Amino acid sequence: RNILKLVLSSPRDVAEERDIVELVAAELNKGVAADYNVLFEVVRWETDAFPGFHKAGPQGLIDPILDIENCDILIGIFWQRFGTPTRDAGSGTEHEFMKAYESWKQKDSPQIMMYFKDAEVRLATAADAEQYRKVHEFREKFPEEGLYWRYGDSRQFERLVRNHLTQFLKHQTPNERVFTKHKGDKTDEYRYIRSYCLKLKERFSTINLFGEGDSADENMGRVMKRMRRVETGFVPLHLQDWHDEIDKCERARLEIADIFFAQDADRLVLVRGLPGSGKTTLLRYLVYHYASMGAEGKECIPVYMRCKDISATDTLEEFVLQQINQESESKLCYEALTGPSYFLEKPMVLLFDGLDEIEDRQTSDNVRQGLVLLKKKYPRCHVIITSRPIKLQREDFPQFRHLDLLRLDADMISEYIKKWFGRDTSKITNLQRALVSRPRIKALAGNPFLLSMICFTYQNGGETELIERRSDLYANCTKYLLQRRYDSSTLMDSEEDYVQLLKILKDISLRFFLWQEADFGIDHVNVIGKRYLTAEVLGKTSDFLDDVQQQTGLLQRAKEGFTFVHRSLWEYFTALALIDKKSDDFVIRHAANPDWEEVVRLYAGLLREDEKVKALVNGLWTINRPLALRVTT
Questions:
Q1: What one-character-per-residue DSSP string does 206-248 give?
Q2: How many Cα atoms sit within 13 Å of 154 on the Cβ side?
């Protein structure tokens, strides 16, 4: 394999990014780079240099090892430090950049990729301020022939570097020394697309079902395994065109097949639904079926994306390319999917999950504008978006068909119960009777997520465990799931560990909710866990959260660490943390923020005294009157 030498250049304050480059290069070496018969070799002074002396100072020792003039790629990174001055430059990084720039002017090599981190800086001293000033000055004087890139955090940096290195490989021409591309015919394209779709079909053949972890109850394990399959556990939801409060016209119930799979299906669809109404599960179902169509040879290429992964500096085209790159098993597959015949053309279906979960307003505005531009530039592409009702305005998406997810009707609830309990006709009959006799529980069952909780609770405790308030339903289910990870023979120890684990889950939930970060980074959770004395008994925080994920199904692994299987569970543990802190004033202050609505409602449900509920409602009345009315339901 041909060696591509990649040199890393940066001050010491971006150590995480330096490690990320090496990890991404190793990942590409196993995939797309191998298809080009190329091997990335990362060179960095801290691993390749050695102690010694040089008349030109330390940089004189480093330069021959980096050999920048003969490298293929230089990746430079700046944040708030500029670095230590050398004899001929303001820092070692600037010195290395200038060597690469002068080499590029002479022979068009190396490829120079410069990144600047746009994140909050902490300038504690005058020296820190001077360092940051030099970074800013360097960026302002950046050569006019060049293009640099900004990024917000390490997660975005990883996506950018992976995408940029892939694009670098893709755009090499045959007369350059890296490789000569192999051109396939249409048959090859179809084979790669089919392979991509088969991979997606397998990945989306299951739905995210809470409580799906290992269970000592074999029967429960079989139930969860069966209901996790998308073709079994998915409820065939109905939809309806948006019904505004002032619009009294009746709206017809619409079938999924008619909206998404008909010959004349709308190309642009926006689906809104309340928490737990099945938005993510609907998209997983759609990806599964679109991928099945593609695997069967039909022209259909689904691309699934979590909106919360979009960064402020990504264009939607770049973001789609990143997702395709992650799902492609080879360079040739990636090229087939991103070629002019398929990329954002008629066969491609973009599925954006959770528009409301975008963390900052700027990114949210960028996505809205990007969708409008995407439609103009690629009118044949299909786009499906899901969101909670918060932050949604019809005028923001004028060309989309606006649909609401409807509550489950009695027949759908009954069908789901039959699937859950299988041949246990006694439980099926008794639960159906319980729902008829207890209207408040039946009202909860109209929500797919809560219906799964009701079935789970009934299977474990019978009718005595059926609860008429959402917050209590969450409490019963989560307590059972968290406690089942312990040996019942050591009940006292298990109760103590349960209380401690609950504290940590609440703390993590609240902190990350305040940051609006749905993925809990491992480094952060380990730091949070150190605050608790029993962490020594429970072990490293990330380790026992991994155990919680395996044993309870409340959490799932995310790229950055962990995340709850459902946003509503995250909101429930956040509300629990606020109950502990007796934070009525804090809750009321956040009531104007749409992201906090479900937390506020769950918080109200957890209050046990009527006077406290009244006080909360009175406080909310001056901030958000519609929410003040909803917290009582």
A1: B---TT-S--S-HHHHHHHHHHHBHHHH----EEEE---TT--
A2: 15
**Range in 175-184, 396-405, 550-559, 615-624 the model is least confident about:** 175-184
The Cα 89–Cα 42 span in angstroms is: 24
Do the beta carbons of residue 471 and residue 575 sit within 8 Å?
yes
Query: Is the pTM of the predicted complex or chain greater than 0.90?
Result: no
Any idea what the Cα angle at residue 504 is, between residues 500 and 508, rounded to 5°? 170
Q: Are strands 561-564 and 555-558 parallel, antiparallel or unpaired?
A: antiparallel
pLDDT one-digit tens code per residue, 147-202: 999 998 888 899 899 989 988 887 763 333 333 333 445 567 888 898 999 999 99
Rounded to an integer, what distance in angstroms lies between the CA atom of residue 1 and that of residue 41? 11
Q: What is the number of other CB atoms lying within 10 angstroms of the CB of residue 277?
A: 24
Strand segments (E) across 279-328: 301-306
CA dist 587 and 627 (Å) reads 12
CB 157 within 8 A of CB 19: no
Which residues, 6+ apart, have CB-to-CB distance to 577 below 8 Å?
Answer: 506, 507, 509, 510
- CB atoms closer than 10 angstroms to residue 602: 24
Helices 522-529 and 491-515: angle between axes, nearest 10 degrees: 130
- Residue pLDDT, tens place only, 516-553: 777 777 766 666 655 554 444 445 666 767 777 777 77
Residue 535 confidence (pLDDT): 46
CA dihedral of 509, 513, 518, 523, whole degrees rounded to 10: -60
Cα–Cα nearest to 497, from 505, 453, 556: 505
Query: Which amino acid, 624?
Result: N
